[in-house]
Every structure is written in C-alpha cells, then in structure tokens.
Design goal:
The protein is an all-alpha fold. It has helices at residues 8-31, 41-44, 48-56, 62-66, 71-97, 112-125, 133-166, 179-187, 190-204, 207-227, 238-252, 261-276, 288-295, 299-308, 314-332, 338-344, 350-359, 365-369. It has two domains: 5-227; 239-369, Orthogonal Bundle (Arc Repressor Mutant, subunit A), CATH 1.10.10. It is built from 18 helices and no strands. Helix 7 packs antiparallel against helix 9. The chain is elongated, with a radius of gyration of 26 Å.
Length: 372
Amino acid sequence: MSYMEQYHKLFFAATLSLIVVSLFAWIIKWFYRPRAYKEHFNQLFPGQFYIGLLFLIQVLELPYLLDMADVKSLRYANAFSLLLAPSLMLIICRKFFFPRENFRFKGIYMFLPAFIFLIIFLLRSVGILSFSETGRNIVIYSAVAIFAWFFFLTIRMALRIGRVTTGIELLEYSDESDYTKTFANYVQWLPTSLCVISLVNYLCNDQWVKFSYDIICIAATVGFVMLTLDPWREVEYIEQKLVLDDISDAESSKSKWRMSESRYIALRDNMIELFEEKRIYLTPHLSLDMLLKELLTNRNYLCETTARSGFKSFYDIVNHYRVKYAINLIKTEPQSKMIDIAFRSGFASAASMNKAFTQQGLPTPSKHRNPS
C-alpha cells in the first residue's frame, strides 16, 4: 500500500462531507422560508435560487469521489472549483446586492466557456477524451485564463459593493447593526478569497491541498448558511444618500422653492393618498424609486414636497406612517411578537423599528405594549 493510499479514506471523508453539507445547504436555500416573509420570499430574495444552485452542483464532484486514485479525476474536481464557483458567485452577488438590475440571458453567454471546459475535463476524467501532452497543457492553462477573467470580475464586484455600502445613509432609516450592512461587510471579499483558494488548489493539483480546500469550503458553507438563515435582500443604493443631501439643501433654502403652490398641493395630496389610503409604506423595503413611479414625478419635486410637508426626508415620512401602523398592531394584537409586527409594518428588522420609534420621539415598542 502506497503512502497516498493510506490516506484515501481521509480524502474520501472530506470530499463526501463537503457534498453532504452542500446538499443540506441546498435544501435550506430552496425550501426553507422564514415565517415573517411568507409568500413574498421569492420576490424579496431573488438570489436564493442561485445560492442553492451553487451548493447543489457540488454533487458534480462525484467522479472524483468514485475514482480518487486517478490523477485525471483530481484535475477534474479542481477544475470544477476553479471554473464554476466564481461564475455562480458573480450571479449571486448581482442578484443579492443589486436585484433591481436586469440580468438578461445575453449576460449568461460569458459563462459558457467555463461550462464547456468543465465538460472537457469531465470527459477526460472518465476516459472518453484523451489529449497529447501539448493538448493537455493547452486545456489546463486555458482554464486558468478563463478563471483570470472571473477573478477580475469578482474584484470589480467587491469594490462595487464596497462603494455602495460606504454610501448607505443608516441614520434616517435603519440601525447600524442591521443585516444589510453587516452582511455586506462579511461577504464583500468572500468570492474573491474563494477564487484565490481555488486557483491555489488547481495549480497544486495535490490531494492534500484538495483535502485542505474541502475543509475550508465546509467551514465557509456552514458559516454562510448560518449567517443568511434569516436574510434581508437589498443593500441601500448610494444614490439614495443623494436624496438626503437634496432635502438638506431644500430645507436650508426654503425661499427658493421650485414648484408653484398649486403643483405642490397636488403632489402633496397624491403622496398623502398613497400613504394613508393605499398604505404604500407597508411595502417591504420601500425605495424612493418606487414612490417616484407611483407619483409620476421626479426626485427634486418629491424632495421639495417632503420638506414643505414638514418631514426631514423620504425615510422620515415612511417611518412616520410605519410607526403609527406598528403602534396600532401592538395595541390590538398584544400576543404578536415584535419581530412579526416589525415586518408587517414594513420595517427591515426589529432594530429598525426600535430606532424609528426613538427618532419619532416616542417610547420603545415594548413600552407601548406595557405602558406601566
């Protein structure tokens, strides 16, 4: 028995554990639905399908698991990690952090080379294809070239997420410990880091390195699933910070209103109708763009209308109505949990609701339930 054969059971156990953990993560991502989100889950979390898919395709490592002694199977398993994981993580980041962007089918074409080369590695590992030494090197280094492109894209995505989270205006709308901010900080460089680890694993093409890679992936999978078990989908866009700046400018120069009195009254009445009659504030994570589409106006006019109506910002008026709605729920449904009341009132979290109450100069939600 050779030295490496003595450790095949260890290598087998690591790869099998990774596959089993990934399948369990796939089940959670595709079938677990937090009660608070109910039927709106797919709309709120469009990235969940692709996250589950990333875990599900881990079963494609089975050829390596069945023939670990073959160096071709090892090369296929390492190529799988190198080519598929970065491409899918890019889709996940786009869907999770920028869900309002349309990812059309033409954008998927850029991922076709990765799938084509992975099929080549698979056919080679099962003995259907064979290459000369030169052809083998061309295939191996072509995969590295494809990876280099994805690696560049993951860096660009991480920088983009960083720019967005830096511009979040949290003081008016949510608590600094809210999920959207902390999650972005945790995973911003995760795809890039996993790409580096995948490249090292691929270039070494060693069973001990593959064993270490499997252990790292198991830990990353478990940590990621636990972190996102109760997720919130959308990081605030940096453009929304500009809205607050516009409102501040409007409040400091009230003598320079742009709208006539009649136009202001008409827009104000339409806005009040949306909030008081249609209850648009109950829309999960209501954005300024959504309100602009409903009112058929532009950002400048809406900012001026908000300021002239006595509110500090768009978020101030949203929280004003959400707080009133939450207070009514607290008093009429004393048995309901605060987290459920927060979600039903449109807040992103219980922390957001607590902060909104404080900003409105009101006691905390729990004190409304127990006035004494």
